[in-house]
Amino acid sequence: MKIAPFLLAAALLQPCVANAQDRAAIEGKFQGWIEQTVWPRAQAAGVTRATFDAAMSGVTLNWDLPNLVIEGAPEDTSQYQAEFRHPARYFNADGLVYASDAGAALMRKHAAVLAEIEARTGVPAQIIVSIWGRESSFGAANIPHDAFRILGTKGFMSTRAPYFTDELIAALQIVAQGFASRDAMRSSWAGALGQPQFMPSSYLKYAVDGDADGRVDIWHSEADTLASIGAYLAAHGWKAGRDWGFEVNLLPMCPAIWRGQIRG
């Protein structure tokens, strides 16, 4: 039996049409969620309607993000963070050489600022600079995404939706309080901001003015970036005098080792 070409084409296109219709329906639900869920929370957090509209107007779902929970589709539970994937890529030799050389030069450039931060927070200069290098290649990394689109998408339909909804509210507060303009809110695919890659709530809690210019600018100011990393680590219990690692003596913890009962 022969099938008419136009019937065959229609049959092949049917899943695509249905998918487009499904996406359109979900986009509609997303816009409803912005208005009915996000706006009341933003308003309660002190965000004006004008600021809210300027931030969220035209924001649509980013269907290319990982870890989305989409109606009718299997849940994506893959691990996309580079530091939790193949270590050879994360610690490749060329990248480490560049980080070491660039980091040493930046430690010399910011020696006075780093000394002041270490005196205040207890966090060594090499730790702060190393984190800066790893998070954004010392500010050189491309941070291409619209934070409100990223956080909105993940707040609406990701595996950690409540967390990202909270971060969306924090991002709105950053703009509402005048810390950054709407256009400056560029993020990673996970919604992290600026050179230290702070989530919006971390910016509100830990970002500090490192160059005493009256602004907290982790997007452009290297001093603010360094001071903010130090403040973050200090707030999370960094102990003065600690380096990146220290020797651990396992013998008192495991007598079986020195008894010879465990052999390596």
Describe it:
With 264 residues, the protein is mostly helical. The chain contains eleven helices and two strands. The chain has helices at 5-44, 49-56, 87-90, 93-109, 111-121, 125-136, 147-157, 161-176, 200-206, 222-235, 255-258; strands at 145-146, 186-187. It has a two-stranded antiparallel ribbon with strand order 1-2. Helix 5 (111-121) runs parallel beside helix 10 and helix 7 (147-157) runs antiparallel to helix 8 (161-176). It starts with a helix and ends in a 6-residue tail after the last helix. The model is unreliable at 6-18 (pLDDT under 50).
Q: Report the average pLDDT across residues.
A: 85
- The spatial strand order of the largest sheet comes to 1-2
Termini Cα gap: 70 Å
Helix content: 40-55%
Main sheet record: 2 strands, antiparallel
CA-atom Rg in angstroms:
24 Å
Find the structural class using helix and strand composition.
mainly alpha
